[in-house]
Amino acid sequence: MRTSTHFVSIATRRAHLRAQLLDDHPPADVTAVVAAGRVILVGGFDGVGPQSAVWATSDGRHFTVIAHLPQPVRYPAVAALGADVYAFGGLISGGEYTGIFTDDIQRIDLHAGSVRIVGHLPTPLAHAMAATVDGDAYLLGGSTPHGPSATIRRLDPASGRTSIAGRMQHPLTDAAVASIGSTIYLLGGISHGPVATILAVHLR
To answer: Per the structure, how many domains does the chain have?
Structure first.
């Protein structure tokens, strides 16, 4: 079976097939981040269980497994700090919002091609968003065993711990995320139901 990669041209507003990732178990629910000049794909779901493979590509055509997560996950939040990629939480079994989440913070060392668990979140979490701003990694919202969260947390890479950096206007999961300058934009997502908002989080 094949997992397809499509390239979207902003100039022409058209998309075309760029490459096909060959795999016996093509993944869904993967989270991606750009780090050290490559696109890094973390975790996912193959229809049977969460995935451990960490894939990398520098051209959108050729993909290589560069590491394996000690805790396979789907729906993790990921953020890059230099040559390290952090995977926060994720779903490890059961239903998408009713299953078992993990509180692991997993650090992927792109230079060494290794992964280890470096810390734990205060509560198990999945479907969260993450972004890097001014050299700091932030974790936003997500789904907990008690429901969706509005908490914004900042990572301390030295200790592997997170601290509260603020709160969003409402709980949010599964939003598309992008950062420009010192602002994180969260597009859409789910609160108590799907939302059509664009939420701007200004960090000071």
So the answer is: 1
